[in-house]
Design goal:
The strands form two sheets. The chain has an eight-stranded mixed beta sheet, with helices on both faces. It has a four-stranded mixed beta sheet with strand order 4-3-10-9. By secondary structure, it is of the alpha/beta class. It contains 17 helices and twelve strands. α4 (about 90-95) runs parallel beside α5 and α8 (about 200-210) runs antiparallel to α10. The radius of gyration is 20 Å and the shape is globular. It has two domains: about 5-195, Rossmann fold, CATH 3.40.50.720; about 200-355, N-(1-d-carboxylethyl)-l-norvaline Dehydrogenase, domain 2, CATH 1.10.1040.
Length: about 375
């Protein structure tokens, strides 16, 4: 790409601040957007974000633009990295729709399950005609935390993170741009692979729900992925993982198991999931959520478990483990996550057969080429 790569980070939470600072420290031109300016005013006042790196060093990443104006944030951006809970993807798509222009790349970090599909569907509903590329990652690149209003910490970087564009014919274009930013991104076959290899669906909601008493009693003062993962809780995670892999198989996708993912992403190994999670140094020092009102519930239940369960029911897979976790979360939060979540309708998949879905993620349309049928029906 000619000239300086202009990168916009949307979201100033754990991941957004870490990514913005990391990119800025490495010399990239970074803008940071957050819809609530009070959450980023300290960053604007300081001119950047102080990042604690894995080496133990701390550096200030200078942020060129800090704004709550979405038009200013995306204007002239080559690469738009959306780093927010999946519960905000729909709102961001609606907000961006009038301002996107041809040639821009939007990457959901991560998409959770069906993120790129929903983002594309919302843009179409909003009348956005810009020829942009939408992509999603399988998971977030870092294990990171926000440690202050203008501070963040990266505990560990994953070795590789699969990414796919929608349609998949554009994946290499996205990777070519990202190569100078994060070479850890690698090609996934399509967004069904990134969506159904969503490990947040396995690790996040169940661990919060199964450790609910401990979280409320201690305010999350324990190591989430170490102390919170006992032999029994690991068995439940393995059940959820089997259901996810089976849904993928029903859709013609060979999904990796959680143990395979831990080996690839973190070089963590074990005879079972309990051992593999305890073998991961990247999980050391990560404390549990302070409260049950956390994105591991309000994001990962409706935007990870719900869409996988919906696809399971649509294609005849028994997903009673996921249904159990969804039901418990609904009771604890007093929220109907099945209704509020990422349904087939919100992903634009209602009534589509497996071959039609396969064509959609490959070509951008569920219809065969030259069929004469409009794409958005």
């Amino acid at each position: 790409m000619d000239g300086e790569l202009q990168i916009t980070i949307i979201g100033a939470g754990h991941g957004g601040k870490a990514m913005a600072a990391d990119l800025a420290i490495r010399g990239h031109a970074v803008r940071l957007y957050n819809r609530t300016y009070e959450h980023i005013q300290t960053i604007a006042a300081r001119g950047g974000i102080e990042l604690a790196l894995e080496s133990g060093l701390q550096e200030l990443g200078p942020i060129r633009t800090v704004t709550d104006d979405i038009a200013q944030a995306v204007d002239g951006a080559h690469l738009i990295m959306v780093v927010i809970p999946a519960s905000g993807h729909r709102d961001i798509a609606q907000a961006c729709a009038p301002h996107l222009v041809d040639g821009q790349i939007v990457v959901l970090n991560p998409g959770r399950t069906g993120g790129a599909l929903e983002f594309r569907h919302v843009l179409a509903e909003a009348g956005c005609t810009a020829e942009i590329i939408i992509a999603e990652t399988e998971t977030f690149l870092f294990a990171s935390r926000s440690t202050g209003p203008a501070q963040a910490q990266i505990f560990r970087r994953k070795n590789t993170v699969p990414l796919a564009a929608l349609p998949s014919t554009h994946t290499q274009t996205v990777l070519d741009v990202l190569q100078e930013v994060y070479p850890q991104f690698i090609a996934a076959p399509n967004v069904l692979h990134t969506s159904l290899n969503n490990m947040g669906a396995v690790f996040h909601p169940a661990l919060v729900l199964l450790n609910a008493g401990w979280i409320e009693a201690t305010g999350g003062d324990f190591e989430f992925y170490i102390d919170g993962v006992t032999p029994s809780t690991a068995l439940i995670l393995e059940r959820l993982d089997r259901e996810r892999v089976t849904v993928a198989t029903a859709m013609g996708i060979r999904a990796q198991t959680a143990c395979e993912w831990l080996a690839r992403a973190y070089s963590a190994y074990g005879e079972n999931l309990f051992e593999a999670m305890h073998d991961n140094p990247g999980y050391k020092g990560i404390t549990a959520p302070r409260t049950l009102r956390h994105r591991y519930i309000f994001e990962d239940v409706p935007y990870s478990l719900v869409p996988i369960a919906e696809l399971g029911r649509r294609f005849g897979v028994d997903v009673w483990g996921m249904e159990s976790m969804i039901q418990i979360a609904c009771v604890i939060d007093g929220t109907d996550y099945r209704h509020r979540g990422r349904t087939l309708e919100r992903m634009g998949l209602v009534g589509l057969s497996l071959p039609e879905i396969a064509r959609l993620v490959k070509t951008g349309s569920p219809e065969p080429a030259n069929s004469g049928v409009p794409r958005d029906r």
